[in-house]
Amino acid sequence: MVATALLALASAFQIGLAAGAPWGAAAYGGRAVLSDGALPIAYRWASAVAALTLIGVIWVALASASLVGRGSVSGSALTVLLWALTAVFVLNTLGNARGHHPVERWGAGTVTAILAALCAVLAAR
Known about the structure:
Largest sheet: none
Number of domains: 1
Number of strands: 0
Keywords: Membrane, Transmembrane, Transmembrane helix
Radius of gyration: 15 Å
Distance between the termini: 15 Å
Strand content: under 5%
Protein name: Integral membrane protein
Structural class: mainly alpha
Shape: elongated
Transmembrane segments: 42-63, 75-94, 106-124
Helix content: 55-70%
Number of helices: 4
């Protein structure tokens, strides 16, 4: 449940970025922010895709904990997905640690580090 709450928070942040919220300095290393604080359209599309992906990851976490149905997806496929997500979140944490904005560095970095650990715990079950 902690993983799904953090994933929902990250998804909401990405949805906000995609909608034009002035949080661009806290995303993508701060290198794409426009004068109004929003992101350029290409980055906004990237944030929309990221939000949809994170919503899919919520399903993976819930399905692996048997909190939602997993349909025809096997338990081993979920385990592989969780290990892959662990690696992705570790890499994302390293990228966030290099961010210029404190929200990206400390906020997002902490969230992705916790998500990496939680995905590893779910995968190892």
